[in-house]
Each structure stands twice: as C-alpha cells, then as structure tokens.
Amino acid sequence: MKSIVKNGIIICLLCISYCLSAQIITEKETINNILNDWHKAASDANFEAYFGLMTEDAVFIGTDATENWQNKAFKAFSKPYFDKGKAWSFTAIERNIYINNTNDFAWFDELLDTQMKICRGSGVLQKVDGKWKIKHYVLSITIPNKDVEKVIKIKESTDDQLVIDIKKHS
Fold first, then answer.
1. Which residues of 98-117 are buried (b: 16+ CB within 10 A; e: fewer)?
2. Using one digit for the tens of pLDDT, what is the confidence trace for 79-109?
3. Cα gap 56→74, rounded to integer Å
4. Strand, coil or helix: what is 7?
5. Which domain holds residue 30?
6. What is the Cα–Cα distance from 127 to 133, expressed in whole angstroms?
C-alpha cells in the first residue's frame, strides 16, 4: 500500500513538472513569435503593428551612441520611414529567450541578418494585461575582433567629441 501511494505521488510530481516545462516552452514560443512579428512589422512598414508590440514606456537603443529613444520620440523618428513604405529589415538567425520565475518578465538576445550585415539585438519583454510586450530593445552592430582596431580608428574623432559633449551636459 505504501508503495502505491509513493508511486502515485511520484507520478503526480512528474506530471506537474512536465506541465510547468510545457508552459515555459509555450511562453518561449509565444515570445519568439512576437519578436518575429515585430521585426516583420518593421520590414512591412506596418507602424501600428510594430509599436503595438511595445509597451507605452518602451525604450529603443540604436547603433549610434546618441540613440536612446523613449517610445514617443522613437515613434516620431520612425514614422517617416514607415510612411515611405520601408523601415528596416531584420531577420533573426539565432535567438535565446529567458523567462523569470513569476512569468511576467522575459529577456532575450538575438543575432540578426540586416542591411547592416550581422547585428545583435537584446531586450526585455513584460507581460501587460496577459500579453507579452517589448519594453526595452538594444541594437548593436557586431564587429569581428580582428577588425576592432580599424573600427576604433574610424570612429575615434566622433566618439572623442561625443564624450566631451556628454560630460559637459552631465
């Protein structure tokens, strides 16, 4: 009798564990689809769909050191590109997704095939009213390690001036 109860408890625990694992996999698939839809909306120049997948207080950090866009400013900057029917085209070629224990925040990193060649995106999603929304996104141009010195030389004077300007205003 004890072994029947013990086996029953083990089976119940295995079932619960399996269900929780399946839920996490489903959440990751949902997030993956949202990120793919977000990138596709930009490629299709669908302004409403693109910004509809972001939180109201979302932040987009672009490749230029001066690009730290709050959502309202990013919308204003982006609108002319969307209105012309061509925003940008990013396709994920690799993506890692992580979810917190309370299932209300997720973070990810991705490698992207873009018009700028391979870029890296990373960001945070928040569950808002039961739906995942992009809260923070960072886009970076990747630089092969062997080419870093060349890139430093190219951007040195611009970066030096930017450092001076930022320090003046802080």
1. ebeeeeeebbbebbbebeee
2. 999 999 989 999 999 999 999 999 999 999 9
3. 11
4. helix
5. 2-144
6. 6
